[in-house]
């Protein structure tokens, strides 16, 4: 038979009309924190789609009006100062997050949150309570309508981009929003990967690609490796609270200071000031200096002064870049290209600093605001089956935080380290800690810390029915599988008996982006402390084990000792018990040695006795 | 006579059905189109009708209408990843030619 060229087929809903003479209308959507875009491949070229006024970017702002209408985009954004409670900005920060996460952000957000009984935070508006999923759906609906109008037909589907950091819950919520908007999600694609695809880097030579994405409120850096047409995400990093908004804040603070006005502004006024700051910033991307007027005050702000204001912010982004590079084990020399993404990379100082750090001119000739949507459009076209012979383009993802198991004494054994590409299967063998142990409790955790209690708990399950054996004899094989969608399942099998247990993990709300960065921060800050804590725990566990073994032995074979010998062991037991409750590693280690020494003779007598018993047993059996 | 699933295909079908939340199984069939005449159809099934044949594969129902069965009997569905495309591949012993567009086939 011919070379395998048959198109791959997808399962569709019954009675789906299929007319293959027309290409399927597929779009890429960049659902951004600040701005959203939709793009599509037309005549083999990805192009952004404009609204009727010729504008490409749709401000990610939604306003709920009294008359039950909803306005999305620039108008909604502009009304944010006059109607702050009903104008929802930056809803991407809220999507897929638990109430608790959002309340932590709440101080900076001028919304009224309703803490209903659902897990989702609800925003009070004149039209009732709205969830972030619903708000996002309003943005997507507008983009879908725009696309259908421009392309002249029903949309087959869309590739929607998400930050590389988005966890399962955030991705799921994004999909839900798309569904609410009547959009068939062909795939969620990481934003950096979309940008690399837009530059056609997938068709180029092999090498490492760095994607530097500084948007309105978030900074993401991704290190990708391209090998034989395969994209692999080596590492992701960033700062979930760093972006152009912070530049605006820096300017706003400067204004407040210079103008000598109170910094305690009501929400509407606050937004007016931020708008002004944002205009000043954008003006400085092309002008060397600009006039700033606020109320009765005015002054000139030069680009150099602005650069000074944002120096620490840009430095933070570079620090995150260095960390991601370290994580990926990539040397500067290996980098083939640096891609600039996000409106804030228009700031000349940002480009200079990035160029300086990576010692090369970054790619910036595709509009950094649109590059993600364009890449997504290319992917959408491939996924919709519109490209007769698509070049191989396999997009692999990584897990953002290590997955592991709690072992004795709150310690974490990492099974799948952070930044491992998925899909992946990793297996590790464990054993029982006590004689006759018939069940093992498995506690699956995620995070970089050494202690389970400091990590995020994903699931607990038990492997039961292990035949009684001496401690250490059972072999429990635990296998972690993370599929291409990032979903984890864990199986545990006792290999001698074949008993098996399994659990699939579906995080209900997942880790927030902040939680991820916070946990990463903490793991680095606490590395030393954790190492010590780990050492201590290990000794405590060893001590506990020894105490239990000796006590069990005394109970069964105490008759092998005379009173004096017994008293000596008891004394050492007591001492070790005390040391074990303290936090001095050295003291515990010493007492372990002491007790070991004190029970040496006892152990060999027990051994003899056991051997005799064993022989006796065998003889009986064989008779 | 049968139409079956590979393990990979079964896994994906099961997951898709779970995600969808309902459905008896999947329908495998053909329709006329493309430059070589026929193309495959793969749909969720909510209701099995009288003229359908139902096969079991890896515990899943594979439903084929009588008309299609002649053309796809013996077909094994696989789920593969080709580059960025993931999808079902039909290993159909009846196929004699495939068209250039990869969309249709003849038997
Ligand atoms: N010419 C410019 N100079 C400086 N910053 C700009 C410019 N144009 C847009 N921005 C900033 O880019 C940010 C939005 O970037 P974008 O990539 O659209 O964000 P997001 O991905 O977060 O939706 C805003 O902070 C905006 O002020
Ligand atoms: Mg963006």
TrEMBL record, chain B:
It comes from the Bacteria. Residues 1-103 form the Core domain. Keywords: Iron, Metal-binding. It holds the Pfam family Fe-S_biosyn. Its cofactor is Fe cation. InterPro entries: ATAP, ATAP_core_dom, Fe-S_cluster_asmbl/transfer, FeS_cluster_insertion_CS, HesB-like_dom_sf, IscA_proteobact. Belongs to the HesB/IscA family. This is Iron-binding protein IscA.
């Amino acid at each position: 038979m011919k070379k395998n060229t048959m198109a791959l087929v997808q399962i569709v809903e019954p009675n789906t009309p299929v007319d293959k003479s027309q290409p399927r209308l597929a779009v890429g959507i960049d659902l951004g924190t600040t701005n959203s875009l939709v793009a599509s491949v037309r005549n083999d070229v990805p192009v952004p789609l404009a609204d009727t006024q010729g504008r490409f970017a749709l401000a990610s702002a939604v306003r709920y009006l009294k008359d039950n209408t909803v306005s999305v985009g620039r108008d909604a954004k502009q009304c944010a100062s006059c109607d702050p409670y009903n104008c929802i900005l930056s809803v991407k920060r809220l999507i897929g997050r638990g109430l608790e996460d959002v309340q932590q952000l709440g101080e900076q957000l001028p919304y009224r949150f309703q803490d209903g009984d659902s897990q989702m935070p609800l925003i009070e508006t004149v039209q009732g309570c709205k969830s972030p999923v619903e708000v996002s759906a309003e943005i997507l609906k507008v983009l879908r309508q725009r696309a259908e109008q421009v392309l002249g037909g029903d949309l087959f589907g869309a590739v929607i981009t998400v930050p590389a950091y988005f966890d399962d819950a955030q991705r799921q919520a994004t999909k839900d929003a798309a569904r609410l908007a009547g959009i068939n999600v062909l795939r969620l694609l990481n934003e950096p990967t979309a940008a690399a695809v837009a530059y056609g880097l997938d068709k180029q030579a092999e090498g490492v690609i760095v994607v530097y994405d500084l948007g309105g409120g978030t900074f993401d850096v991704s290190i990708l490796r391209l090998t034989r047409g395969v994209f692999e995400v080596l590492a992701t990093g960033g700062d979930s609270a760093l972006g152009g908004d912070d530049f605006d804040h820096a300017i706003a603070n400067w204004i407040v200071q210079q103008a000598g006005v109170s910094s305690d502004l009501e929400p509407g006024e606050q937004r007016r000031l931020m708008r002004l700051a944002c205009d000043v910033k954008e003006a400085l991307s092309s002008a060397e200096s600009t006039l700033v007027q606020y109320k009765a005050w005015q002054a000139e702000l030069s680009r150099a002064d602005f650069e000074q204001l944002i120096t620490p912010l840009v430095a933070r982004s570079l620090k995150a870049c260095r960390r991601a590079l370290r994580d990926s084990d990539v040397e500067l020399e290996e980098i083939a290209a640096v891609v600039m993404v996000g409106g804030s990379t228009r700031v000349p100082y940002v480009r200079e600093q990035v160029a300086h750090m990576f010692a090369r001119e970054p790619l910036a000739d595709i509009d950094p605001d649109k590059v993600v949507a364009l890449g997504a459009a290319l992917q959408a076209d491939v996924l919709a089956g519109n490209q007769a012979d698509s070049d191989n383009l396999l997009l692999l993802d990584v897990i953002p935080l290590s997955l592991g198991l709690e072992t004795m004494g709150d310690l974490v054994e990492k099974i799948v380290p952070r930044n491992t590409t998925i899909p992946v299967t990793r297996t590790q063998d464990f054993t029982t800690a006590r004689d006759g142990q018939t069940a093992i409790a498995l506690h699956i955790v995620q995070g970089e810390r050494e202690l389970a209690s400091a990590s995020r708990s994903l699931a607990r399950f038990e492997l039961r029915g292990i035949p009684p054996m001496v401690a250490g004899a059972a072999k429990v094989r635990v296998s972690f599988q993370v599929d291409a969608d990032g979903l984890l399942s864990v199986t545990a099998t006792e290999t001698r008996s074949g008993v098996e247990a399994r659990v699939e993990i579906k995080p209900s709300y997942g880790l927030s982006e902040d939680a991820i960065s916070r946990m990463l921060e903490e793991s680095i800050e606490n590395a030393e402390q954790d190492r010590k804590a780990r050492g201590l725990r290990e000794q405590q566990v060893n001590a506990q084990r020894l105490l239990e073994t000796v006590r069990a032995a005394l109970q069964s074979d105490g008759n092998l000792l005379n009173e004096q010998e017994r008293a000596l062991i008891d004394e050492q037991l007591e001492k070790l018990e005390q040391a074990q409750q303290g936090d001095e590693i050295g003291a515990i280690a010493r007492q372990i040695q002491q007790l070991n020494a004190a029970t040496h003779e006892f152990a060999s007598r027990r051994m003899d006795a056991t051997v005799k018993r064993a022989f006796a047993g065998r003889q009986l059996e064989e008779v | 006579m049968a139409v079956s699933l590979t393990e990979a295909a079964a896994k994906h079908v099961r997951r898709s059905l779970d995600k969808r939340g309902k459905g008896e199984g999947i329908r495998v069939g053909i329709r006329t189109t493309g430059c070589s005449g026929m193309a495959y159809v793969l749909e969720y099934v909510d209701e099995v009708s009288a003229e359908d044949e139902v096969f079991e594969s890896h515990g899943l129902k594979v439903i084929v209408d009588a008309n299609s069965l002649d053309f796809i009997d013996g077909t094994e569905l696989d789920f593969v990843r080709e580059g960025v495309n993931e999808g079902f591949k039909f290993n159909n012993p009846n196929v004699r030619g495939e068209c250039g567009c990869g969309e249709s086939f003849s038997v």
